[in-house]
Design a protein that fits this description.
mainly beta; 16-stranded antiparallel barrel; 18 strands; 12% helix
Length: 366
């Protein structure tokens, strides 16, 4: 009896030990994940006024609202970075889908600086400005180039996606400087659904978006970007082929300048007849550019100026130009007050195309 009892007891103890080791390993991973995860968020409140004459369709020319309320959780475990970000303000169910929703949900394998892989939902790899956090743009809004041609509120009719999509991206830094302060070359290329955030693919093609830039000195980047893809809505598919070129210098002083050109009709350009045939109107070309300069006044205050142009038909009579000034005062790293003024000259409207806007925005991060 003892001959059988001792091996059975030994096997039971071994199995128990393995189970305990596996349980301990799982608990260890959980603890490491929790300890290396940062929870936070930010709020941007806005009070605005405009003198644009829109007739009886507008009840008020002034407004107080929440521009953005975001909550996020992110960190790094082993060779993986991860991030989950939610927008929690707005009203859900609207056509433009601006209500509470997931905006970022990604993980990135980043063991090697020359080749990291990101997958999930994240910013499209198009233009310098699009990936920037609203805290760092310097103005009360992104440029029209980013808004209309980088997938924020895209000209083609895509739902509001904040410049993001679902996909996988390869990126890396090459040729480090002798001082170790920066790399001379950066590249990034991604494959995306092409339908914007929180939407599955609706056609048999994928969007290819990429960029490459050189950094001749620290804080200075000169780059080019490309985008080839399509978008489908209500059975209508439109092309989205774009190029962008830009320069970015970010230090105490800021200089950013970008130009983008687009080929592809809007969804609204198509009309379906009673016999089922499709007719298309308008042009399939558009472009945009901006030049922004930031000047430090004090260690806490920085003044920005911007010339911001979007041409919906790539013609001068379809131009909307915005001349903007912005003053940013940083009380603390997580508290900033921003005053913005813009003069708008919009030739692409039959209404009042010459008007002024001003707003005051409070940035709070926690």
């Amino acid at each position: 009896m003892k001959k059988f009892l001792i091996p059975a007891l030994a096997a039971t103890l071994l199995a128990t030990g393995n189970l305990y080791a596996q349980t301990s390993k799982v608990e260890s991973v959980k603890q490491e994940l929790l300890q290396k995860t940062t929870l936070g968020g930010y709020i941007i409140g806005k009070a605005s006024v405009s003198d644009q004459d829109l007739g009886s369709s507008v009840k008020s020319h002034s407004n107080i609202d929440l521009r953005l309320v975001r909550l996020y959780a992110g960190g790094r475990i082993w060779d993986f970075k991860y991030n989950l970000q939610m927008e929690v303000n707005g009203v859900s169910g609207t056509k433009k889908e601006k209500g509470p929703r997931i905006v970022d949900a990604w993980a990135e394998w980043c063991k090697y600086g020359f080749a990291s892989i990101k997958f999930g939902q994240f910013k499209r790899a198009f233009t310098f400005e699009n990936p920037m956090n609203p805290w760092n743009v310097g103005f009360g809004a992104y440029s029209q180039l980013s808004d209309k041609l980088a997938g924020m509120n895209d000209r083609i009719g895509e739902h509001s996606s904040g410049g993001r999509d679902l996909g996988i991206q390869l990126q890396g830094d090459l040729i480090g400087s002798k001082s170790g302060s920066h790399h001379y070359l950066h590249y990034q290329v991604g494959v995306y659904n092409g339908q914007g955030i929180n939407h599955s693919d609706e056609n048999n093609s994928k969007d290819i978006i990429g960029g490459v830039w050189v950094n001749p000195i620290k804080n200075l980047s000169i780059g080019a970007f490309g985008w080839s893809g399509s978008y489908t809505q209500d059975g209508i598919t439109v092309d989205r082929n774009r190029m962008a070129f830009g320069l970015r210098y970010e230090s105490k002083w800021t200089v950013r300048a970008e130009y983008a050109t687009s080929q592809g009709h809007k969804i609204s350009d198509y009309t379906k007849g009673e016999d089922g045939t499709m007719t298309v109107k308008g042009t399939d070309h558009a472009d945009a550019w901006y030049v922004a300069v930031g000047v430090p006044v004090t260690s806490k205050c920085k003044i920005y100026g911007k010339w911001d142009v979007y041409r919906d038909n790539k013609t001068w009579n379809s131009q909307k130009a915005i001349y903007a000034l912005s003053a940013n005062y940083t009380f603390f790293p997580n508290l900033k007050l921003q005053a913005n003024y813009s003069f708008v000259n919009d030739k692409n409207t039959t209404g009042d195309g010459h008007y002024n806007t001003a707003d005051l925005q409070l940035y709070l991060r926690f």
